[in-house]
Specification:
It contains 11 helices and 9 strands. Helix 4 packs across helix 5. The radius of gyration is 18 Å and the shape is globular.
């Protein structure tokens, strides 16, 4: 079986449209998604959801790293090219807006990759896509593990932290240059949307059994030294099965070791995973 067929076997007929790659880039898609690099006749498309405080530029080098796969990164409002817009305040509404932008790209099999806060946004976007008959072939939940939701008292309230505490939190998680984090101009620019992301995530706290139910398979990717991983009962949130993948590193393992090979091999193999439950 070729790579093309292995991936296409996991897509439904609902995903097939008459759009070509040029037609797929609508104005709404271009607003919400940055294409890392165009790929001629891609076998699949990968949509990447950044972490809290992150932007599409985090995935700028991924475009040429996964052969045959066209990579898109989500542009959250309130930062980078969309700095003039207010940051999102409702995670589900944000995910639905991304799903609307992604839908025109469904002439090819779609996979979603979300890191940290990006994982639940990818989850809700996948649910929104499935609700409209577009079935993602895989969801990669990075910086997240299959585990019960934290108890409410374990959720830190971002409004109770002062700026130094927020900066310290960024440095503890990793992924932020210490010298840059100490720059007052950087703090003035970045901390407002870092706080907004934390507030949005803080208010997104599904009760057990209330989360969306997916059909697509999920792979969780967690650093073996990650003490800050997102906890989500993925095995209860999809009927497509869950595979847990441990890698070397902390919460931002993917800065030094991006999981390009894992993504490529999973999509090429058709992503066989155990049945949920």
């Amino acid at each position: 079986m070729t790579t093309d067929n292995a991936i296409l076997d996991n897509a439904t007929l609902d995903n097939a449209t008459s759009h070509n790659a040029a037609d797929a880039m609508t104005a709404d898609t271009a607003l919400w998604l940055h294409r890392a690099a165009p790929v001629t006749d891609p076998v699949a498309r990968l949509v990447c959801f950044p972490h809290a405080g992150g932007s599409a530029s985090f995935f700028r080098d991924w475009g040429h790293r996964i052969p045959g796969v066209e990579v898109y990164a989500v542009r959250y409002p309130g930062r980078a090219e969309r700095l003039a817009e207010p940051p999102a305040s409702d995670l589900r509404e944000l995910a639905r807006a991304v799903a609307d932008a992604v839908a025109p790209l469904a002439d090819r099999p779609l996979a979603l990759f979300g890191h940290s806060m990006g994982a639940p946004i990818a989850l809700e976007a996948a649910a929104a896509l499935e609700a409209r008959g577009i079935n993602p072939v895989h969801l990669f939940a990075s910086g997240s593990r299959d585990a019960p939701y934290p108890s409410p008292e374990d959720w830190a309230d971002p409004d109770e932290e002062d700026d130094p505490a927020v900066v310290e939190r960024l440095l503890t998680l990793g992924g932020t240059d210490p010298e840059l984090a100490a720059d007052p101009e950087f703090q003035e620019l970045v901390l407002p949307y870092v706080r907004a992301d934390a507030r949005m995530f803080h208010t997104y706290a599904p009760a057990p059994g209330s989360g969306p139910s997916l059909r697509c398979p999920v792979t969780t990717i967690t650093g073996d030294a990650d003490a800050d991983a997102d906890c989500r009962p993925w095995s209860e949130l999809t009927t497509g099965g869950v595979r847990e993948q441990a890698v070397e590193g902390d919460h931002f393992y993917l800065v030094a070791q991006p999981p390009h090979a894992l993504i490529r091999d999973t999509l090429a193999a058709g992503a066989p995973v155990p049945s949920a439950g």
